[in-house]
Specification:
Helices cover 27% and strands 29% of the residues. With 213 residues, it is an alpha/beta fold. The chain starts with a strand and ends in a 6-residue tail after the last helix.
């Protein structure tokens, strides 16, 4: 079973995840560490747990999810994995940075484009790649069967869903992504979202007011 650690970073209260296997290989998802204190907290945890970062992944590229990309890439010499259509979202970050008064580094040059028809490997653990647009142009979610977990980005939250008023957002597309990609997963599958607390597929089917209208 994979282990997972959640950090809450930056003023947007974004969830950054570290997942690791029994060999200590780890994957960093949506690093939002912005301040030196946040960057050090992530680095200290990885060092104390004696982990070896081998994957850096963005579920999508809204500003709150990419603030720590450059730090992670430089610290552990990792390329960034993302869906190719999310580059358009990434290019919007400098404009949003001006709006929110934060500094964003240029889009990294070391990129690996992920294909939803394939899987992403962390050691022996394969993540099924689910294309789940609607919150952004090409949001990706990652399902790991053996560990029964879903990294949902900002697609699905505890009793809520991702906002659709940003560029690339579309409510009908988002609802379709959830219904076609998530509802066939086990009801006890644990959902780790880009903000807020964890939930399960079954709980959201029953109680999410946006999905039970």
């Amino acid at each position: 079973m994979l282990q997972i650690k959640q950090f809450v970073f930056n003023d947007f209260q974004e969830n950054t995840y570290v997942l690791w296997d029994d060999q200590g290989q780890c994957m960093l998802v949506d690093p939002g560490c912005y301040s030196i204190v946040e960057q050090q907290a992530l680095k200290t945890f990885i060092e104390q747990q004696q982990l070896k970062p081998v994957l850096l992944v963005n579920t999508h590229c809204h500003i709150d999810h990419v603030l720590g990309n450059q730090f992670v890439m430089q610290t552990w010499n990792l390329p960034l994995h993302l869906h190719p259509k999310e580059l358009q979202t990434y290019r919007e970050t400098s404009r949003w940075a001006d709006v929110f008064g934060v500094k964003v580094n240029a889009i990294p040059s070391e990129l690996v484009f992920i294909d939803e028809t394939k899987s992403l490997l962390l050691g022996k653990y394969a993540f099924q790649l689910l294309l789940t647009p609607g919150h952004s142009i090409a949001s990706m979610s990652f399902y790991q069967k053996e560990s029964n977990l879903l990294l949902a980005g900002d697609v699905l939250f505890h009793r809520s869903i991702g906002r659709t008023d940003l560029p690339g957002g579309n409510l009908n597309v988002l609802l379709n992504s959830i219904e076609t990609q998530f509802w066939n997963l086990p009801e006890n599958c644990i959902v780790y979202s880009g903000h807020g607390i964890q939930t399960t597929i079954g709980e959201e089917k029953l109680y999410n007011p946006f999905l039970n209208r």
